[in-house]
Amino acid sequence: MIVEMRTGASKQEVDDVVQKAKSLELGVQLNLGTDKTVVALLGSNTGQIPTDIFAVLPGVESVTRIMKPYKLASREFNPRDTLVDCGGVKIGGERIVVIAGPCAVESEDQLMQAAEAVKKAGASILRGGAFKPRTSPFSFQGMQEKGLELLAKAREEFGMPVVTEVVDPHDVELVSSYADMLQVGSRNMQNYALLTNAGKSKCPVVLKRGFSCTISEWLTAADYLLTDGKNQVVLCERGIRTFEDSIRFSLDISAIPVLKKNSHLPVIVDPSHAAGHYSLVPAIAKAAVAAGADGLLIEVHPNPKEALVDGLQSLSPSDFARLMEELRTIARSVGRYI
Ligand code: PEP
Ligand code: MN
Predict the structure, then answer these.
(1) What distance in angstroms lies between residue 192's CA and the mean position of ligand 1's atoms?
(2) pLDDT grade, residue 247 (50/70/90)?
(3) Is the shortest distance between the CB of 185 and ligand 1 below 6 Å?
(4) Quick one: what percent of the chain has pLDDT higher than 70?
(5) What is this structure's pTM?
(6) Whose CA is nearest to atom 10 of ligand 1?
(7) Which residues have CB under 8 Å from 263's CB, separation 6+?
(8) Closest ligand to 211 CA?
(9) Going from the N-terminus, what domains does the chain have, and what CATH number goes with each?
(10) Which of 74, 81, 200, 283 sits between 20 and 30 A of 37, alpha carbons compared?
């Protein structure tokens, strides 16, 4: 249930709503907007509580039941677009933010070369996996803490914030101590223990779409990250499993406008994991920007042929630089910039 306060409602009036909710054993989350406060009332029993109990309180403008399963990620809770701050880089504004780097951190040389190349081409955040969620237990699992140290070193050297994946709920604190933003991967979108811990981290979180999950399930998973008052969550569409097998995953381009309509969270697109092949990445990346994405997450490797993970879908530095130029034109045509 969402209680929208009147413009200029007093602190006492907001407190009275909160007290009433607590007396009914409801959870409360406040969205202190610049002109209006919105109070989300959370709990499995909200359906049994008449809206009038809140509608009659002084300072209340309206009370709405949210019929959707997700609440805090919804536009009803926050009608304005949320801006997410990743180490000083704002995601969700006019600027389209490009996050780029290798799938996995493999060595100091590889990461530094990748960081230098993506920075030079205009990317503003560096990516690189230190803990890799691999489909097979026999595949390279990542450099783990050593990889995190290298990411922190690259941040110092190139002045770029870093995003990296956390796989195990127990590693949230460790990864947060090195990263500027945590990534929750597609395979873990519904790992509720991981989401709960990541929600408590000081870091913003990029939540990738589970490749067999609906948009509604995705936004409901985002609510786990948002329950502790965090609003720093970015959604990343990375392709879903369909009957189509000529591509690794089918990028759901329509997810972008659907999310923009139903949620206040920024939306980015990962064309690399959808494409599965470097030659398909540019077209998908450009389509995402044209469709209104707030950013891109692109795999770039200094030498894709030698990559330990996802080499086939990784762009070389020169291909990435060319794509960035093309993206600037598309961004301008939709009133944005890179
Ligand atoms: C990744 O970004 O390296 C990754 C493993 O992505 P996804 O979780 O989307 O498969
Ligand atoms: Mn990858």
Answers:
(1) 18
(2) very high
(3) yes
(4) 100
(5) 0.95
(6) 186
(7) 70, 73, 74, 75, 219, 222, 235
(8) 1
(9) 2-64 (3.30.70.1140), 84-333 (3.20.20.70)
(10) 200
